[in-house]
Write the structure tokens for this entry.
Amino acid sequence: MNTSYDVKFWDIRRNASSKTPSYVVRWKVSGREKSKTLRTKALAESFLSDLRQAAKRGEGFDLATGLPTSMVKIKAAVTWFAFALAYIDMKWPHAAAKTRDSLTDALATVTPALVNDDATDAPDPLVLREALRQYALPPACRELSQPEDIRRALSWLDRHSLHVSDLAKVRNVRLGLDALTLRLDGGAAAATTIARKRSVFYNALQYAVDLEELPANPIDKVKAWKPPKVREVVDRRVVVNPKQARELLTAVTYVGRLTRGRHLRAFFACLYFGGLRPAEALGLRKQDCHLPETGWGRLVLVKSKPQANKKWTNSGQAHDDRGLKHRAQDEGRPVPIPPELVAILRDHIEEFGVHDDGRLFRTSRGGVISIGTYCDTWKAARALALPPEQVVSPLAARPYDLRHAAVSLWLNAGVAAPDVAERAGHGVDVLLKVYAKCIDGGADIANQRIDHALNS
């Protein structure tokens, strides 16, 4: 394969020669112009992004097809199993740890279902899943020594996997969709799990379409299969009021041995008074904080510390060091904070100091606090602060619900939606959709207007 690193990209343009909307991705490899037409602008942007990412990784581009070597490898895959491995190889380098987890989770679910009708003597489903998740799908794990049952399971899958072209048939793609709806124990999977895995499956099939291995995404042809509806709005029952939030923050200080609870009080306060995501609070550094002696302060969030399995991170650590969600790398987000949070953070720094890198919240050895640690602390604090009937309710059941309470409070205080979205790191459309049921007063206003119309 003759390759070149001399690649140039142009902006996407509307296909003027077609009556139905379509969009053209154009690029040049060693002076040779290449193009691909896709049905929607979103698909075109995704395809162009994959090309740019490949160039950024230093991949050579095939002179004949104009595609980067990773895409050529995917085109050469005959079976779905081989395609899934090549697809993971293409996605892996620029995917976040949690995205890698989701990719392997979904593909480990659908791949065992996409086999020939005459496939007999199937391995135990638990063994097949372990073989895919722990040995085959993560690129770095493929060279590991494989136990005999793992080796046999992957060999069986390699022999019986459907051809990619077979997935053009609706009955075959339904095998994968049906597999998404079940847990390993045969019970029904959660709606959010099904939706997440279906998205990965759909995108992988769409990539086969982009590479012209399938004529169209077969999932679009499946009419009788409907994914369950996923709750996309915050349940207002989880939202605490300011009095309850303060009682919970006080209760946190009584949890755990030595100073563990007191150390985490400021962490939880950042979620409630600042609307931070937990991973953003874990990445908060002293140099990110403007904490005046009086009045409002400001945080400029830059880093995030999301937690994932060590297998999925580049560093081999449980927490990745990443930029902010929905932001470009190193793009900060300013968050004004009220005097109450300013005072809490000043007290925290005075009592506990900061890590060598400036982080405010860390373990006794300087590590990143785990999800399990702060969730256990929060659970204990709820039991101390809330009456029994509220302990068993959804009220602030998770630390993340403090962020929901913060955003709901801002909206109900009359803060303009664009300002709330900027502070919370949301888009305005997503903000209003997610928090629609947490905004008070809307029903009363609507009732007054209807009553006025009926009686005028």
User: Anything to note?
Assistant: Residues 296 and 338 are 5 Å apart (CA to CA).
